Amino acid sequence: MAAAQDVHVRICNQEIVKFDLEVKALIQDIRDCSGPLSALTELNAKVKEKFQQLRHRIQELEQSAKEQDRESDKQVLLQEVENHKKQMLSNQTSWRKANLTCKIAIDNLEKAELLQGGDLLRQRKTAKENLAQTSSTITENLMGISRVMSQQVQQSEEAMQTLVNSSRTILDANEEFKSMSGTIQLGRKLITKYNRRELTDKLLIFLALALFLATVLYIVKKRLFPFL
């Protein structure tokens, strides 16, 4: 079952990396967001959801580390858990900074709109479209990586299921082997008992034959040599 644990650890690590990339992509979207506040709120909700998934996977990896049989494996996994936690804290810091930057940018744009009117609005629209296109390209690239990693996770899960089925088959075969061993042992005892009984029968036959011959010799002696 240690192999199954290794597969589970690998799946946890792959999903942690996937969620980390998705969080980074959303933080980049927040940096590029120029409003309105409703768009920023929606992005923040997505970030919170990804952080929850990331935190859950890190906890699973930490639990797997505590269940390791070897102390060396346990320490290696705990170090990975610590690194993932530090990375998550770094992402949270970047998230707060991106929110602050975005809110300042939105406030500045709103103030500039009030002062400059329609020209700034057109400039803002053009800038927003360019930023949206750039953000969309970055997000698509990161999501492509995420999809590849999801496929790898699915393959790892299938491999783990195959491994579990193989382990179950081996256990069943082991039980059958134990049953056969018991039957063979019983047969060996019966053969040994039969061999001993056969030896006893031969000995009895030999003694009976000897007694018979002795009786015959005695009778012959009395008939032929009565004076002896």
Give an overview in words:
- 94% of the residues lie in helices and 0% in strands.
- Helix 3 runs antiparallel to helix 4.
- With 228 residues, the protein is an all-alpha fold.
- It contains 4 helices and no strands.
- It has helices spanning 2-32, 37-66, 71-116, 118-224.
- It has a domain at 1-115: Up-down Bundle (Methane Monooxygenase Hydroxylase, Chain G, domain 1).
- The longest helix has 107 residues, at 118-224.
In short:
By secondary structure, the protein is mainly alpha-helical. The protein has helices at 2-32, 37-66, 71-116, 118-224. Helix 1 runs antiparallel to helix 2.
Tell me the layout of helices and strands.
Blueprint lengths: L1 H31 L4 H30 L4 H46 L1 H107 L4
Descriptive key words:
228 residues, mainly alpha, Methane Monooxygenase Hydroxylase, Chain G, domain 1, 4 helices, rod-shaped, Sec20, transmembrane, endoplasmic reticulum, Sec20_C, transport
Element order: H for helix, E for strand = HHHH
| Structural class estimated from helices and strands | mainly alpha
Identify the quaternary structure here.
single chain
Terminal CA distance = 89 Å
- CATH class designation of the domain at 1-115: Mainly Alpha
